[in-house]
Amino acid sequence: MLSNQFVISLFLLLCLPIVFFLVAPHVFSPPPRESLIPIADEIDDQILFRRASAGSSSHLSSGTPHPKLKIAFLFLTNSDLHFAPIWDGFFSGHPRSLYNVYVHADPFVNITRPGNGSVFQNAFITSAKRTSRASPTLISATRRLFATALLDDPANAYFAVLSQHCIPLHSFRFVYQSLFESPRVRTWHRSFIELISDEPRLWKRYIARGRYAMLPQVPFDKFRVGSHFFLMTRTHALLTVKDRILWRKFNLPCYRSDECYPEEHYFPTLMNMKDPEGCTGYTLTRVNWTATVKGHPYSYKPTEVSSHLIHHLRLSNHSTSYFFARKFMPTCLTPLLAIADSVIFRD
Hints:
There is one protein chain. The chain is α/β, with parallel strands linked by helices. The chain has one domain (39-57, 66-344). 37% of the residues lie in helices and 12% in strands. The chain is built from 12 helices and 9 strands. It has a 4-stranded mixed sheet with strand order 2-1-3-6. The radius of gyration is 24 Å and the shape is globular.
């Protein structure tokens, strides 16, 4: 009898490591770690965001727009602004009373700033901080741009988030008239942002921080994905810098880096939860995802630049054609400049 009990006890003792190995990952999984964003940066951001929230008005008439309403062009970059000459041509001949330009450049990267005469010369914001791909730092950078533009000019009515690899597909006149004046496009008071709910890897993206990390604030049925490059209304930009609750969730680090692109998740989810009817559900920046490399979209080469390519990239199934496109190799600058006036800015 005692011998049997001893054998059973020994067997159970030997089984304990196996049970622990199988069960522990599910029962004793560690809680999400704290954000890797330095606390000093977070404090600086909150001060800036509170100033923008308190000092900015979100009131814009939904009737006939005032002719002095502006588009704020917000550039996120961690390298040189290779296509600054194209953008200078885009803005050329149009008064600054119709637009503003702001650049968030990673201060830890040596970036050559455009010289005299460029719209980018004095556009670099002083609150810029370190950024890295597929991290919440890109969310913070975009919110800093929003806050800066909100405080800088109450006439900023639309906020166009762009990268250094973006180019315009139309003239400035076309973009401005489409947003504010065209009778064909009556959604100027809505944000042009994707709110994708049927992405094949949506669930894996949702649980990238842990299966229950987003709960209870962000249930799976409210989670959305979309491009990080969009046009947002002033009302929505203000709503974004005021947010504290969702930011705490998307600021958590991921356990699955291959599914973690916070900047592509935070803004669509926030808009979907706060004001989905105020969004078009599509972006005005064309991206080619047919040949992705490690999460990067297809990059156009100099030999591909042509009038045919520009006309093709403009095509859209929505109410207006695409305004911008990415991603272009820096070596595309020369052939793009060669067709700028005759094709790109000729609508």
